[in-house]
Amino acid sequence: MKVNDEHPRMTIKKVCSCFYSREFGLRSHVARNIQTLNGRIDDIVRKKNTFNFKLSEGGPKRRRTASAIDATEINGRDEDRGTIVKMLVSESSDQEPALRTISLVGMGGIGKTTLAQLVYNDHEVETHFGKRIWVCVSDPFDEIRIAKAILQGLKESAHDLNELQALLLRIQESIRGKRFLLVLDDVWNEDSTMWEQLKNSLKRGCLPGSRFLVTTRNKKVASIMGSSSTDILELGLLSPDECWSLFSQRAFFEEDSRERENLEETGRKIAERCKGLPLAAKTLGSLLRLETRRGEWESVLNSHAWEIGETESNFLAPLWLSYHDLPAELRSCFLNCADSNLLAPLWLRYHDLTAEMRLCFLYCAVFPKDYIFRRDTLIKLWMAQGFLRETKKQEMEATGGECFEAFVAHSFFQVLKKNKDDGSIIESQQHGE
User: Fold this and answer.
1) What is the model's pLDDT at position 346?
2) First to last CA, the chain
3) Angle between helices 192-203 and 143-153 (to 10 degrees)
4) Where does the Disease resistance protein winged helix domain start and stop, copy by copy (predicted)?
5) Contact in structure between 102 and 87 (CB atoms under 8 Å)
6) Is residue 161 located within the same domain as residue 302?
7) In angstroms, rounded to a whole number, what is the distance separating the alpha carbons of residues 46 and 176?
8) Three-state DSSP string of 241-286
9) Higher-confidence residue: 23 or 151?
10) C-beta of residue 343 within 8 angstroms of C-beta of residue 323
11) Does 55 fall in a domain?
């Protein structure tokens, strides 16, 4: 056996050298990774600047509502309207709470706000209440903003007040001896403590018979706001006839016209696809208002109409808000449901394009804003860049034509000029937003 006669200090030096070598190697590896990541980030920034991408805040935008409405343009909900008006103007009894809260509950797009607007502007309601106030609550539930909005509705100044206590005292003074109706539209808050201070202040001094009218998507919120089970009205879908009436009112300029006669059969089928949702009927009707060719209507009927840009922003936004309000674990469950395909266009309108189409679309970003594209010229430019492939079944020009038509269908392009003979697109413009 060979005896190791090295000095102990030499052994320690070798061990330290080994550890140093390994540590240096690890640091070098990390440094290379950081360098690679920095390079990728720089590349992303360069592409962002090249294609003029802009950063935007995530999440849905919540719309603001007001009380104004043209009742002549509303179809359906007559029975619901009568029910709510009766509940609002009925005489108070000893069994009723001091301030009765009536809630309209239903999914996004079902017509809660529209019904509340109809009731708010009803002549009987208008004459019954000394004061009517409309507040769009939305999310978050900002007590100070809501209190200021109530004061503005009472035609009282709130500019000099920033504390909740001072705002609530002025509200009490303004409603003393009056019977009022307060509409709280689009309520999401499930924390009862945030509502209690406002509610308790509104109770003081007002006349019996004052009412709250709440619109919400959540039955739990309705209960938190103080509605009993008998004071919660859950809105159902429109009947097929009501849906068609609403759709046709938006889609046709005149009740009796040649266009209506030619398109009514297709239009009724489109209205059926709205599944009784008022917002869907209004959105699709408005979308087709300027389209007089049956082929355009049939294209909407036979495709996923909600994938059209205008329909997305108007119809699917309420569904996206409901999804966004779910906890993370419930979102995952929701995305496994069959109805998740309704939300897909909100995120996938661009990603739904093929890789080939994405390249063609991104190439258009090098042109100035509001640039007018000639269809044939743009296809040739795509071909010159090598974005289009030729297959045994299809030439590059045909593939480019499909890309162009897809961009129009997805509302990436706005049609400016069509061929009068065959209806083919000659010129288009990229949307600015």
Assistant:
1) 36
2) 83
3) 30
4) 366-424
5) yes
6) no
7) 63
8) HHHHHHHHHHHCCCCCCHHHHHHHHHHHHHHHHCCCCHHHHHHHHH
9) 151
10) yes
11) no
pLDDT at 373 over 50: yes
The model's confidence at residue 150, banded by pLDDT at 50, 70 and 90, is: very high
Nearest to 145 by CA among 169, 124, 164: 164
If 0-12 CB within 10 Å is exposed, 13-18 middle and 19+ buried, where does residue 321 land? Answer: buried
The whole-angstrom separation of Cα 283 and Cα 207 is: 41
The answer to whether the CB of 109 falls within 8 A of the CB of 318 is: yes
Q: Please choose, from the candidates 58, 84, 61, 81, the residue with its C-alpha nearest in 3D space to the C-alpha of residue 71.
A: 81
Taking only the tens place, the pLDDT of each residue in 165-212 is 999 999 998 888 889 999 999 998 888 888 888 888 888 878 888 999
Contact 157, 206 (CB under 8 A): no
SS3 15: helix
Q: How far apart are CA 288 and CA 268, in angstroms?
A: 13
Q: Give just the sign of the alpha carbon dihedral 92, 94, 100, 105.
A: negative
Flag whether pLDDT at 242 surpasses 80. Answer: yes
Domain count, the chain: 3
pTM here is 0.58
- The pLDDT tens digits for 87-140 are 999 876 555 666 899 999 987 778 899 999 999 999 999 999 999 999 999 878
Q: Is the pLDDT of residue 336 over 50?
A: no
Q: Which of 205, 234, 263 is the last residue of a domain?
A: 234
Query: Where a domain ends, among 320, 348, 376?
Result: 348
Q: How far apart are CA 36 and CA 21, in angstroms?
A: 22
- Give the model confidence (pLDDT) of 26-35 as tens digits: 556 666 777 7
DSSP letter at 369? T
Q: Which residue has the higher pLDDT, 5 or 156?
A: 156
Give the whole-angstrom CA distance, residue 56 versus residue 86: 46
Per the CB < 8 A criterion, the answer to whether 303 and 409 are in contact is yes
Q: Is residue 296 part of a domain?
A: yes
In a domain, 117, yes or no: yes
Whether residue 425 lies inside any domain: the answer is yes
Q: Give mean pLDDT, residues 376-381.
A: 88
Range of the domain at 188: 71-234
